[in-house]
Design a protein that fits this description.
Helix content is 41%, strand content 25%. By secondary structure, it is an alpha/beta fold. Helix 10 (238-244) links the parallel strand 11 (225-232) and strand 12 (256-259). Helix 3 (67-79) packs across helix 4 (97-107). The relative contact order is 0.17.
Length: 280
Protein backbone atom coordinates (compact mmCIF):
# COMPACT_ATOMS: atom_id res chain seq x y z
CA UNK A 1 0.00 0.00 0.00
CA UNK A 2 1.45 3.39 -0.99
CA UNK A 3 2.30 5.83 1.79
CA UNK A 4 1.24 9.41 1.13
CA UNK A 5 2.44 12.24 3.37
CA UNK A 6 1.29 15.84 3.70
CA UNK A 7 3.37 19.03 3.85
CA UNK A 8 2.15 22.56 4.49
CA UNK A 9 3.47 26.01 5.38
CA UNK A 10 3.35 27.83 8.70
CA UNK A 11 0.41 30.04 7.70
CA UNK A 12 -1.86 27.06 8.47
CA UNK A 13 -1.73 27.83 12.23
CA UNK A 14 -2.28 24.18 13.18
CA UNK A 15 -1.04 23.44 16.72
CA UNK A 16 2.33 21.67 16.94
CA UNK A 17 0.77 18.67 18.70
CA UNK A 18 -1.73 18.09 15.91
CA UNK A 19 0.92 18.46 13.20
CA UNK A 20 3.01 15.83 14.98
CA UNK A 21 0.03 13.52 15.48
CA UNK A 22 -0.88 13.71 11.79
CA UNK A 23 2.73 13.41 10.62
CA UNK A 24 2.51 16.67 8.65
CA UNK A 25 5.70 18.39 7.52
CA UNK A 26 5.87 22.15 8.10
CA UNK A 27 7.79 24.65 5.99
CA UNK A 28 8.01 28.01 7.80
CA UNK A 29 7.68 31.47 6.34
CA UNK A 30 9.96 34.25 7.60
CA UNK A 31 8.95 37.23 9.70
CA UNK A 32 10.89 40.48 9.57
CA UNK A 33 10.90 43.13 12.29
CA UNK A 34 12.90 45.98 10.81
CA UNK A 35 16.32 44.55 9.90
CA UNK A 36 15.84 41.35 11.91
CA UNK A 37 14.46 38.32 10.08
CA UNK A 38 13.25 35.29 12.02
CA UNK A 39 12.01 31.84 11.01
CA UNK A 40 8.35 31.47 11.95
CA UNK A 41 7.65 28.90 14.70
CA UNK A 42 11.35 27.98 14.85
CA UNK A 43 13.08 31.18 15.92
CA UNK A 44 9.85 32.99 16.77
CA UNK A 45 6.95 31.42 18.66
CA UNK A 46 3.42 32.78 18.38
CA UNK A 47 3.63 34.09 21.95
CA UNK A 48 6.94 35.84 21.20
CA UNK A 49 5.50 37.27 18.00
CA UNK A 50 2.60 38.96 19.77
CA UNK A 51 4.92 40.37 22.44
CA UNK A 52 7.14 41.90 19.73
CA UNK A 53 4.12 43.02 17.75
CA UNK A 54 2.93 45.31 20.53
CA UNK A 55 6.37 46.87 20.97
CA UNK A 56 7.10 47.48 17.28
CA UNK A 57 6.46 50.89 15.72
CA UNK A 58 5.62 49.36 12.35
CA UNK A 59 3.89 46.14 11.46
CA UNK A 60 6.20 43.22 10.73
CA UNK A 61 6.59 41.90 7.20
CA UNK A 62 6.46 38.33 5.93
CA UNK A 63 8.37 36.53 3.20
CA UNK A 64 7.80 33.20 1.51
CA UNK A 65 10.02 30.15 2.04
CA UNK A 66 12.57 29.28 -0.63
CA UNK A 67 11.96 26.45 -3.11
CA UNK A 68 14.90 24.72 -1.42
CA UNK A 69 13.06 24.66 1.90
CA UNK A 70 10.14 22.85 0.28
CA UNK A 71 12.44 20.49 -1.60
CA UNK A 72 14.13 19.57 1.70
CA UNK A 73 10.74 18.89 3.30
CA UNK A 74 9.64 16.72 0.37
CA UNK A 75 12.89 14.72 0.43
CA UNK A 76 12.55 14.25 4.19
CA UNK A 77 9.17 12.65 3.59
CA UNK A 78 10.67 10.34 0.97
CA UNK A 79 13.41 9.33 3.40
CA UNK A 80 10.68 8.45 5.91
CA UNK A 81 9.11 6.10 3.37
CA UNK A 82 6.62 8.30 1.54
CA UNK A 83 5.66 7.21 -1.97
CA UNK A 84 4.07 10.58 -2.69
CA UNK A 85 3.48 13.98 -1.13
CA UNK A 86 0.52 16.36 -1.06
CA UNK A 87 1.49 19.94 -0.24
CA UNK A 88 -1.26 22.33 0.90
CA UNK A 89 -0.38 26.01 0.81
CA UNK A 90 -1.56 29.47 1.77
CA UNK A 91 -3.79 31.12 -0.84
CA UNK A 92 -1.92 31.90 -4.06
CA UNK A 93 -3.78 35.24 -4.19
CA UNK A 94 -2.18 36.37 -0.94
CA UNK A 95 1.35 34.98 -1.04
CA UNK A 96 4.07 33.65 -3.35
CA UNK A 97 4.57 30.69 -1.00
CA UNK A 98 2.80 28.24 -3.30
CA UNK A 99 5.08 29.19 -6.20
CA UNK A 100 8.09 28.09 -4.15
CA UNK A 101 6.35 24.77 -3.46
CA UNK A 102 5.51 24.30 -7.13
CA UNK A 103 9.10 25.02 -8.17
CA UNK A 104 10.37 22.46 -5.66
CA UNK A 105 7.87 19.90 -6.97
CA UNK A 106 9.16 20.45 -10.51
CA UNK A 107 12.73 19.97 -9.33
CA UNK A 108 11.84 16.60 -7.84
CA UNK A 109 9.80 15.44 -10.85
CA UNK A 110 10.68 11.83 -11.63
CA UNK A 111 12.10 11.40 -8.12
CA UNK A 112 8.90 11.69 -6.05
CA UNK A 113 5.24 12.31 -7.04
CA UNK A 114 4.22 15.65 -5.50
CA UNK A 115 0.86 17.41 -5.83
CA UNK A 116 0.58 21.03 -4.73
CA UNK A 117 -2.84 22.23 -3.58
CA UNK A 118 -3.89 25.88 -3.37
CA UNK A 119 -5.99 26.13 -0.20
CA UNK A 120 -7.40 29.50 -1.37
CA UNK A 121 -7.54 30.15 2.37
CA UNK A 122 -5.65 31.35 5.43
CA UNK A 123 -4.95 30.29 9.01
CA UNK A 124 -7.18 27.40 10.17
CA UNK A 125 -9.15 27.46 6.91
CA UNK A 126 -5.92 26.25 5.33
CA UNK A 127 -5.34 24.13 8.44
CA UNK A 128 -8.60 22.22 8.04
CA UNK A 129 -7.68 21.35 4.44
CA UNK A 130 -4.34 20.06 5.72
CA UNK A 131 -6.05 18.03 8.46
CA UNK A 132 -8.50 16.46 6.01
CA UNK A 133 -5.71 15.53 3.59
CA UNK A 134 -3.57 14.07 6.39
CA UNK A 135 -6.46 12.01 7.76
CA UNK A 136 -7.14 10.64 4.29
CA UNK A 137 -3.48 9.71 3.86
CA UNK A 138 -3.40 7.99 7.27
CA UNK A 139 -6.43 5.93 6.26
CA UNK A 140 -4.40 4.50 3.39
CA UNK A 141 -5.81 6.60 0.55
CA UNK A 142 -3.77 6.77 -2.64
CA UNK A 143 -2.31 10.04 -3.94
CA UNK A 144 -5.23 10.94 -6.22
CA UNK A 145 -7.74 10.17 -3.48
CA UNK A 146 -5.92 12.38 -0.96
CA UNK A 147 -5.81 15.19 -3.53
CA UNK A 148 -9.54 14.76 -4.19
CA UNK A 149 -10.35 15.03 -0.47
CA UNK A 150 -8.23 18.17 -0.17
CA UNK A 151 -9.72 19.82 -3.24
CA UNK A 152 -13.26 19.04 -2.06
CA UNK A 153 -12.44 20.74 1.25
CA UNK A 154 -11.07 23.78 -0.58
CA UNK A 155 -14.30 24.10 -2.54
CA UNK A 156 -16.47 23.84 0.59
CA UNK A 157 -14.49 25.97 3.04
CA UNK A 158 -15.97 29.13 4.56
CA UNK A 159 -13.77 31.52 6.55
CA UNK A 160 -14.93 34.68 8.34
CA UNK A 161 -13.19 36.96 10.80
CA UNK A 162 -13.99 39.90 13.08
CA UNK A 163 -11.29 42.59 13.17
CA UNK A 164 -10.93 44.19 16.60
CA UNK A 165 -9.12 47.39 15.66
CA UNK A 166 -8.11 49.28 12.54
CA UNK A 167 -5.22 50.93 14.35
CA UNK A 168 -2.76 48.12 13.61
CA UNK A 169 -3.66 48.19 9.92
CA UNK A 170 -3.29 51.97 9.91
CA UNK A 171 0.10 51.66 11.63
CA UNK A 172 1.28 49.31 8.91
CA UNK A 173 -0.01 51.50 6.11
CA UNK A 174 -2.37 48.79 4.89
CA UNK A 175 -5.43 51.05 4.89
CA UNK A 176 -5.71 54.78 4.44
CA UNK A 177 -5.46 57.01 7.50
CA UNK A 178 -8.89 58.55 6.85
CA UNK A 179 -10.56 55.15 6.81
CA UNK A 180 -8.80 54.16 10.03
CA UNK A 181 -9.89 57.41 11.66
CA UNK A 182 -13.47 56.89 10.52
CA UNK A 183 -13.46 53.38 11.93
CA UNK A 184 -12.11 54.63 15.24
CA UNK A 185 -14.68 57.42 15.53
CA UNK A 186 -17.61 55.17 14.72
CA UNK A 187 -16.26 52.12 16.57
CA UNK A 188 -16.67 50.16 13.38
CA UNK A 189 -15.61 46.53 13.66
CA UNK A 190 -15.30 45.07 10.16
CA UNK A 191 -16.17 41.45 9.47
CA UNK A 192 -14.09 39.96 6.67
CA UNK A 193 -14.52 36.89 4.50
CA UNK A 194 -11.97 34.83 2.59
CA UNK A 195 -13.66 34.63 -0.79
CA UNK A 196 -12.06 32.90 -3.77
CA UNK A 197 -8.70 33.13 -2.06
CA UNK A 198 -8.91 36.87 -1.35
CA UNK A 199 -9.81 38.75 1.83
CA UNK A 200 -12.96 40.79 1.28
CA UNK A 201 -15.09 42.96 3.56
CA UNK A 202 -18.24 41.04 4.49
CA UNK A 203 -20.00 43.57 6.73
CA UNK A 204 -19.49 46.44 9.18
CA UNK A 205 -20.56 46.11 12.81
CA UNK A 206 -20.73 49.02 15.25
CA UNK A 207 -19.27 47.33 18.35
CA UNK A 208 -16.99 44.43 19.22
CA UNK A 209 -19.85 42.58 20.89
CA UNK A 210 -22.03 42.90 17.80
CA UNK A 211 -19.25 41.74 15.49
CA UNK A 212 -18.69 38.59 17.56
CA UNK A 213 -22.41 37.90 17.81
CA UNK A 214 -22.71 38.37 14.05
CA UNK A 215 -19.89 35.86 13.55
CA UNK A 216 -21.49 33.34 15.91
CA UNK A 217 -24.84 33.73 14.18
CA UNK A 218 -23.23 33.00 10.80
CA UNK A 219 -21.88 29.73 12.18
CA UNK A 220 -25.29 28.81 13.61
CA UNK A 221 -27.07 29.68 10.36
CA UNK A 222 -24.72 27.42 8.41
CA UNK A 223 -26.62 24.44 9.82
CA UNK A 224 -25.07 21.07 10.64
CA UNK A 225 -21.30 21.29 10.24
CA UNK A 226 -18.79 18.68 9.16
CA UNK A 227 -15.81 20.71 10.45
CA UNK A 228 -15.42 23.81 12.58
CA UNK A 229 -12.32 25.73 13.65
CA UNK A 230 -12.05 28.83 15.81
CA UNK A 231 -8.92 31.00 15.95
CA UNK A 232 -7.89 34.16 17.75
CA UNK A 233 -5.05 36.65 17.28
CA UNK A 234 -4.04 37.07 20.92
CA UNK A 235 -7.71 37.93 21.51
CA UNK A 236 -8.59 38.63 25.14
CA UNK A 237 -12.26 37.73 24.59
CA UNK A 238 -11.86 34.42 22.75
CA UNK A 239 -13.50 32.52 25.63
CA UNK A 240 -16.46 34.88 25.47
CA UNK A 241 -16.81 34.06 21.78
CA UNK A 242 -16.68 30.34 22.52
CA UNK A 243 -19.60 30.79 24.92
CA UNK A 244 -21.58 32.26 22.01
CA UNK A 245 -20.99 29.01 20.11
CA UNK A 246 -22.27 26.83 22.93
CA UNK A 247 -24.19 23.86 21.58
CA UNK A 248 -22.59 24.07 18.13
CA UNK A 249 -20.31 21.18 17.26
CA UNK A 250 -19.30 19.53 14.01
CA UNK A 251 -20.68 16.05 13.51
CA UNK A 252 -18.69 13.63 15.64
CA UNK A 253 -15.65 15.91 15.90
CA UNK A 254 -14.33 18.41 18.42
CA UNK A 255 -14.01 22.06 17.43
CA UNK A 256 -10.47 22.74 16.26
CA UNK A 257 -9.05 25.62 18.28
CA UNK A 258 -5.89 27.51 17.39
CA UNK A 259 -3.98 30.76 17.69
CA UNK A 260 -3.52 33.04 14.69
CA UNK A 261 0.23 33.17 14.31
CA UNK A 262 2.90 35.40 12.85
CA UNK A 263 2.07 35.11 9.16
CA UNK A 264 -1.57 36.15 9.22
CA UNK A 265 -1.19 38.15 12.43
CA UNK A 266 1.28 40.45 10.68
CA UNK A 267 -1.51 41.51 8.34
CA UNK A 268 -4.66 41.64 10.48
CA UNK A 269 -3.32 42.79 13.83
CA UNK A 270 -4.07 41.80 17.40
CA UNK A 271 -7.54 40.85 18.63
CA UNK A 272 -9.03 39.34 15.47
CA UNK A 273 -11.23 36.28 15.93
CA UNK A 274 -12.08 33.97 13.06
CA UNK A 275 -14.05 30.88 12.18
CA UNK A 276 -13.54 28.31 9.44
CA UNK A 277 -16.12 25.67 8.68
CA UNK A 278 -17.42 23.13 6.19
CA UNK A 279 -21.12 22.31 6.10
CA UNK A 280 -22.14 18.71 6.66
Amino acid sequence: MPTIRVVTDSACDLPDGLLSELGVGLVPLRIRFGDEELIDRTELSTKEFWARFGASKALPETSAPSPGAFAAAFRAMAEQGADGVVCVNLSSKLSATIEAARQAARELEGELPIRVIDSLSVTLGQGLVVQIAAEASRSGAALDAVVAEAEAAVGSMKVFGAIDTLEDLKRGGRIGGAQALLGSLLSIKPVIEVRDGKVEEESKQRTRGRSLRYLADKVKAAGPLQRLAVMGADAHDIDQFFSMLEGIAPEGRPVLRGEIGSVIGSHIGRGAIGVAYIRA
